Amino acid sequence: MKSDSPAQQSLLSKGRRRAFEPILWLLAFAAPLIVPGHALMVNEIAIVALFAVSLDLVLGYTGIVSLGHAAFFGMGAYSAALFAKHVMPDPLVGLAAGMAAATVLGAIASVTIQRGSDLTRLMVTLGVSLILMELANKLDWLTGGSDGLQGVVMGPLLGQFEFDLSGRTAAWYSLSVLLLLFFLARRLVQSPLGATFKAIRDNRLRAMAIGIPVGSRLTISYTVAAAMAGAAGALMAQTTGFASLDVFDFHRSADLMLLLVVGGTGWLYGGLVGAVVFKLMQDAISALTPQYWTFWLGLFLVVLVLVGRERLIRPWTWFGKGGQS
């Protein structure tokens, strides 16, 4: 029998689960019990991490630069909130509704990223988010306008687990969705379809020359990422009981870029690492200096870029090699 080529061995090694992964996820699920007073923070980190992973799919693996990823987050949030208020309060069905709405929006919006330069895509994707934000503001009879959609009451998860004030149920719910979608995303990027994403990222013209249908691959990548971002938005609306115009705001898309600068692109765990580091730093610094926390956070990002992520955050290097950013 022929031995595997170096390329095949490399692909197989990337597809294997590393020994640290079960420990990492067990610690994440144990966090609401270990630090019960910070269960809501764990829930927030899980939601932001899922949102960041969705952007990494299009930025790190397909090379699509987007500043309007909040459009899908907001669509998922409002869809899940409206579904809970007017149809049924079941969390899982509402999550599916939010993902479905964001998926449709992603498929439609994928037309806008087929052509043009990175700067063009930045402006077009940002424009989609601003349009949706203005629509949500004007359709106040449906969305609550600038006051937001309030009074979103969710039923018990799986008919058994009520959403408590401590946030434990919400944290475990969000972590479970993150775990499922994370490994589905990893399965996607390690498949032959994912290999075509990376070929497009590295050289679009060469990918076209070897017969890869670039347009359809961009649509698939963008649509899947939109569905994941919609899931993050739905989780946010369901676990907080509120959806406002803030979900479409530019700062959400900009924060995602910062998360991926911290964690790295093109390896999925970058979104998780970035979410943990960014949120913990934000919480700790804002507690110490409420007025100047953005200055210290900005200084950290500048040092991170100048010194290099691998040198500054050495404890994370054992998770695997970082991305390209």
Describe what you observe in this structure.
The chain has 325 residues and is an all-alpha fold. The chain has a domain at 38-248. It is 70% helix and 0% strand. It contains 15 helices and no strands. Helix 4 runs antiparallel to helix 5 and helix 4 (70-86) packs parallel to helix 6. The protein is globular. The N and C termini lie far apart (40 Å). The model is unreliable at 316-325 (pLDDT under 50).
| Unreliable spans | 316-325
Total of helices: 15
Q: What's the β-strand tally?
A: 0
The largest pleated sheet is described as: none
Terminal-residue CA separation = 40 Å
Helix content: 55-70%
Question: How would the global form be characterised?
Answer: globular
Average pLDDT over all residues: 82
Radius of gyration: 20 Å
**Topology as a string of helices (H) and strands (E):** HHHHHHHHHHHHHHH
Coarse structural class? mainly alpha
Strand percent estimate:
under 5%
